[in-house]
Amino acid sequence: GGTGFKEVHEEEKSRLVGNVFSSVASSYDLMNDIMSVGLHRLWKDKLVSKLNPFPGMKHLDVAGGTGQHNILVSKLNPFPGMKHLDVAGGTGDVAFRILETLNSVKRRATQDVLEDNLHKETQIFVCDINPNMLNVGKKRAMERGLGEDKSLIWVEGDAEALKFKDNSLDGYTIAFGIRNVTHIEKVLAEAYRVLKRGGRFLCLELSHVEVPVFKELYDCYSFFVIPTVGELVAGDRNSYQYLVESIRCFPSQETFASMIAAAGFQKVEYENLVGGVVAIHSGLKF
Ligand code: SAM
């Protein structure tokens, strides 16, 4: 095929994203804390608290449950024996939370609830296209005492072409990752393909603020503060300039929800956090 503008643009995007994450891998976690004033930790907790329900667990007081939502339907925690895929998993933040929640479920649960599931092997896959990010994640896993945990599996791979079988996973998360991919539709189609029926798709992403005044303040923060801090702390203004651009180009909450539905997901909904600075989108495969 001819090399149209679109293809060139796409190659450029993949290359840029590759460079960004190779160059920021070592400062990535520190930058996350600075840029979000630590809020990304709470956002990730919230994401994990929305994972797939497990009927046997519904009466348990599970650590980290939010309590304020419809607990039976959608807001329960991960379960032992689950197969979960965290895509664009980077340095492991989401996967660590899932594993740590699981470990606390195991400690609290009564034996009868768990006997069917404990023997099944839990597998939390962290998939990322960038080996530098995964390497930082592996080191962090050691530091957190998860280095020997066989449930944690690091895989280098592309969200647009996953190396997982159809209908093979209970849950799928992608945090601050889908904004960087070249074809969002391909990523959603792959998420749908690999999930089992009943499996949940969850996406945490920087989104759009529409609240007046707050929007203007947030724009100032994005345009002036983020690139400057990027330069001062990570020594890399361009990567953080790219970050700001990519947020602007990402579809609105409603548009993104309709893309998730178009991929086949049911019960698509989203929740804005901090006025839409980030949004959590959710869908189920029936
Ligand atoms: N999920 C982690 C977190 O929340 O801290 C990391 C998010 S980081 C902003 C985005 C990650 O997406 C990077 O690690 C990058 O390598 C990865 N990425 C970009 N394009 C990808 C693709 N096509 N497939 C898989 N991972 C990709």
Automatic annotation (TrEMBL):
Q: Could you tell me one molecular function GO term of this UniProt entry?
A: 2-methoxy-6-polyprenyl-1,4-benzoquinol methyltransferase activity
Keyword Mitochondrion appears in the UniProt entry? yes
Q: In UniProt terms, what function does this protein have? A: Methyltransferase required for the conversion of 2-polyprenyl-6-methoxy-1,4-benzoquinol (DDMQH2) to 2-polyprenyl-3-methyl-6-methoxy-1,4-benzoquinol (DMQH2).
* Keywords, comma-separated and alphabetical: Membrane, Methyltransferase, Mitochondrion, Mitochondrion inner membrane, S-adenosyl-L-methionine, Transferase, Ubiquinone biosynthesis
Full protein segment contained here: 92 to 377 of 385
Does the keyword section mention Transmembrane helix?
no
GO cellular component terms given for this protein: extrinsic component of mitochondrial inner membrane
Chief place of localization: mitochondrion
**Cellular location(s):** Mitochondrion inner membrane
Protein EC: 2.1.1.201
Q: In which pathway does it act?
A: Cofactor biosynthesis; ubiquinone biosynthesis
Native source species = Quercus suber (Cork oak)
What topology does the record note for this protein and the membrane? Answer: Peripheral membrane protein
The protein's annotated catalytic reaction(s) are: a 2-methoxy-6-(all-trans-polyprenyl)benzene-1,4-diol + S-adenosyl-L-methionine = a 5-methoxy-2-methyl-3-(all-trans-polyprenyl)benzene-1,4-diol + S-adenosyl-L-homocysteine + H(+)
What is known about its subunit structure? Answer: Component of a multi-subunit COQ enzyme complex, composed of at least COQ3, COQ4, COQ5, COQ6, COQ7 and COQ9. Interacts with PYURF; the interaction is direct, stabilizes COQ5 protein and associates PYURF with COQ enzyme complex.
The name of this protein is: 2-methoxy-6-polyprenyl-1,4-benzoquinol methylase, mitochondrial
GO BP terms: methylation
Q: Which family, according to the similarity comment?
A: Belongs to the class I-like SAM-binding methyltransferase superfamily. MenG/UbiE family.
Question: Which residues does the annotation say bind S-adenosyl-L-methionine?
Answer: T91, D128, D158, A159
This chain is encoded by the gene named COQ5_0
